[in-house]
Amino acid sequence: MASNRRSPLSPLRAILNAGATKAREVIGTPRVGATATTASAESLLSETFVRRLERLSLLTRGVIAEGVAGDHRSRRYAASAEFADFRPYVPGDDFRRIDWNAYARLDGLFLKLTEAKEDIAVHLLVDSSLSMHWGEPDKLGFARRLAAAIGYLSLSRYDGVTGACFAERLYDRLPLLRGRAQAMRMLSYLDDAPIGTATHLERAMAQYCANSPRRGIAFLISDLMTEDDWQKAVLRLLRERMEVVVVHILAPQELHPDLDGEVELVDVETGDLVEMVVGEQARQRYEQRTEAWCKQVQDFCHRSECGYLCLDTTLELEEIFLNKMRRRRVVR
After folding, report:
1. Is residue 146 a contact partner of residue 214, using CB atoms and an 8 Å limit?
2. pLDDT digits (tens, 9 = 90+) for 115-151
């Protein structure tokens, strides 16, 4: 029954809501008969991993917005405790910021500059179409857990977190949240987002950008199986002067299908039926075309100065954050 459905975010929710002891019970003892997706969730969002998330931060190339103080280094200078540089005093400067130790050594007036700490807006854009609600492990469950981990990392650094789920259109937005205390609200949003039909990525991103979202980092999490032009969707986000990270989610059955003989393939979004005979040669051609498609996406992102991550749903979140995202300089 739907009312008994176990959320893929339940382990993280347990950590935030019930404390470490209860979390160990939920995470450390998988339910008898649990599916691969549920068991994966229980292992991926472990207490240890959540604590590691709190020690990471997102890397940004300069989209930091002025406003509430966060945990990211800014190109601006401001009054704070962290030293950045000196510059000569000019009339009109605040004399209270004169470094008298430098005056004694250098016989000149110098201001001590300290580094501003500011927040960024993190946009979680999650494809919740029918094509995402497929695979083993399920792509949508994986995407929600990944978005939850990115969001929790950001909230723990006091960054603003917002975003939306989408399919044939943009669904209700996640209002801008800030602070670790808002993590449960973010999880509830990801849990309750509806599952749509076919993806219209360009339309959804145009709707998202229509309300002048804050500049920041946009994580576009999708299988990119869209009815319109996904490249225009990415360019639309870039026109809003956002940094974009395209997170390309694929199930292992899409990367290496285990099909043989006469088969009927049904499009989960449109219901279209294709009958074909699959053999070793057909599987090899399919895998080559899939690899070429992923390479095309990567090349487009490189040309557009976007981040790109192609993720198999069997990957563990620890591997993604502590290895892949670090190598791609998404987190540090």
Report:
1. no
2. 545 568 999 999 999 999 999 999 999 999 999 999 9
Identify the residue whose tokens are 């790109």: 308
H-run or E-run covering 147? helix 139-156
Q: Is 105 exposed, middle or buried (0-12, 13-18, 19+ CB in 10 A)?
A: exposed
Q: How far is CA 309 from CA 298, 321, 330, in A?
A: 8, 11, 10
- Domains delineated in the chain: 48-62+119-327 (3.40.50.410), 73-118 (no CATH)
Of 2-6, 119-123, 139-143, 188-192, the range with the lowest mean pLDDT is: 2-6
* pLDDT for 2: 44
Q: What is the pLDDT of residues 272-282, one digit of tens each?
A: 888 888 889 98
Tokens 């472990």 appear where? 46
Burial label, 95 (beta-carbon count in 10 A; 0-12, 13-18, 19+): exposed
3-class secondary structure, 118: strand
CA distance 97 to 91: 13
Over 68-113, what HEC string results? CCCCEEEEEECCCCCEEEEEECCCCCCHHHECHHHHHHHCCCEEEE
**What would the mean pLDDT of 275-301 be, rounded to a whole number?**
93
Beta bridge partner(s), residue 247: 221, 309
Angle, vertex CA 212, rays to CA 208 and CA 218, nearest 5: 55
Residue 178 β-bridge partners: 160
List phi, psi (to 5°) of 92: 105, -20
Is-contact 9 191, C-beta < 8 A? yes
Q: Which residue has the tokens 């068991």?
A: 39
Q: Which two tokens stand for residue 41?
A: 């969730």
